[in-house]
Amino acid sequence: MLIAIFNATATGDELTYTWDFGDDSDTASGVTVNHQFANNGTYLVTLTVANSTGSTTSQTLTVNVDNVAPVVNAGDNQTILEGTTVNFNGSFTDPGILDTHTIEWDFGDGNTVTDVLEPSHNYILDGTYTVKLTITDSDGASTIDTLTVTVNNAAPIITEITGNTIVNQGDTATYSAIATDPGNDILTYTWNFGDGSQIQTGATVNHIFTQAGTYTATLTVTDSDGASTQQTFAVQAIPTAPKYAIRSEKQVRINNGGDLDGNPQDINDDALIYAAKGFTINGNITLPVQRDENGNPLTDSSGKLILVDNAVTVAPSYTTINANNNQYSNLVPPQVVDEQVIEIPAYADLKQQSLDSTIAPGTQTVTFNSGQNPLNNSQDWALKFPAPGAASNPRVVRVTGGGLNIPDNINISNYVITVDNGDINFNGSNHNFNNVVLIANNGNINLSGVRATNLSVFAYGSINMNSQARFAASTLLASGSTNGSINFNGATTSINSGDNLKVVSAGRITFNAASNSRGSMSSVGDFTFNNNSTLYGTIAAKGNVTFNNGANVVYTQL
Length: 558
Description:
Elements: E1 2-7, E2 16-20, E3 28-29, E4 32-37, E5 41-50, E6 56-65, E7 71-73, E8 78-81, E9 85-87, E10 91-93, E11 101-106, E12 112-114, E13 120-122, E14 127-137, E15 142-152, E16 157-162, E17 166-168, E18 172-180, E19 187-192, E20 200-201, E21 204-208, E22 213-223, E23 228-238, E24 244-248, E25 251-254, E26 258-259, E27 272-275, E28 278-281, E29 285-286, E30 312-314, E31 320-322, E32 335-336, H1 347-358, E33 365-369, H2 378-384, E34 395-400, E35 404-406, E36 410-419, E37 424-426, E38 431-440, E39 445-447, E40 451-459, E41 463-472, E42 474-479, E43 485-492, E44 500-505, E45 508-512, E46 517-523, E47 527-530, E48 534-541, E49 545-547, E50 552-555
Parallel strand pairs: 8-15, 17-23, 24-27, 24-48, 25-28, 25-49, 26-29, 27-30, 28-31, 30-32, 33-34, 34-36, 35-37, 36-38, 37-39, 38-40, 39-41, 40-41, 40-42, 41-43, 42-44, 43-45, 44-46, 45-47, 46-48, 47-49, 48-50
Antiparallel strand pairs: 1-4, 2-3, 2-5, 5-6, 7-10, 9-13, 11-12, 11-14, 14-15, 16-18, 18-21, 19-20, 19-22, 22-23
Protein name: PKD domain-containing protein
Pfam families: PKD_4
């Protein structure tokens, strides 16, 4: 836009001056006039002078009007937090009032917008951004104005924490958290459970409170720019009854060492001992000890190892303590706990439960007279003994006429075999069992080195096994007489959860483990564990418990 001043001089009487500015605007009158050109360009201005008689004279001149760029104001500098929306207030003026304009904002973070004079924009990441507002008129002239937006980092926001706030001492508890960050930063989750344990990291963590008490746990969430947020919560760890791996209503005797600590870094597999009447420990046995947050064993001022709580306990009525106190500081005098009653499953109940779960209703029993049908070899077995049943409906056979002798090289599957009177004897070797129940109602069962899957053996008298047996899946050995015993050399095929050996005796148990085994041993009489192998499970005896030759126990919940 241009304002021009025009001035003219002429001679004569009573003259009239008329101006035509060549831009289609109204004409103006007067010797001196002002005129505003709305747009740039070249204009031919004509002055016409008339006298009183109507005579006129005209004269022209050329006026060049140059374009003028807009005047731009992007607005004031701003300071915000990341993730916050900024409102911009741009403005501009242009002398060329007929011009049209294009508007462009460059927000400095790779984003632009056009044709909006007062836009809004969200900055995700912290930093300092130079924002440019460019106004360009329709004649191509442009002006840029800038402002600075300072985006400060914002701390994360913890939106959710899940996990039990009341837990059992020694149990594994799982905690999870969800947090958001306005800047979409990478977040680090740090957990301090307030119990002196190591700091844990991750959105989901597992934790074990080894001691009972109330703890203040703190979750800290930190973004990649260093800003952090904390939230605390209280956790109550309730004391639980000790999970004893070895229990005896009488004495526990350990000879020639052994290991009851399992994985030293895992308190859940410690083989704790309850020996009501006391204990005798010969040799250097490895017992579970307390450890610091780095897994190092704790010692007292004299350098002796400090046992975990309930590592070796006795009842108030204990009578015998015989152990070397040079290695452990709190072994002697012993830790005294409440007296326990050890419950041993009843033989009759175990047998009935097995029959109820194995025999389908309405299944007929086949009678086999062993006295009239001697079984001397595998051919006799195939020809004379009743054929097997199916896995879901095993053959039920009642043996009369004496005991049952099973020849060697026999594969037996899907049977329930009950001998009324007499023993069940295995001759030779190479006996393979699958889904079999053997019952000697008034006798013993003498097993060989069987290979068995899902085998249940019930003998009112004794169960004897002289060879190395292997048991897969679920195996149950039970004897019913207080004068009987279970004496065997065997082990589970693996120590995985799929294999489990359960041994219950109304009398004694002598376990000559052929290899590492997984299972539970329960006896009304004494329990003796020979050989340098490991039992993953538990031992319970109303009689004495004796370990020989460095036998090991790892507590395992079955």
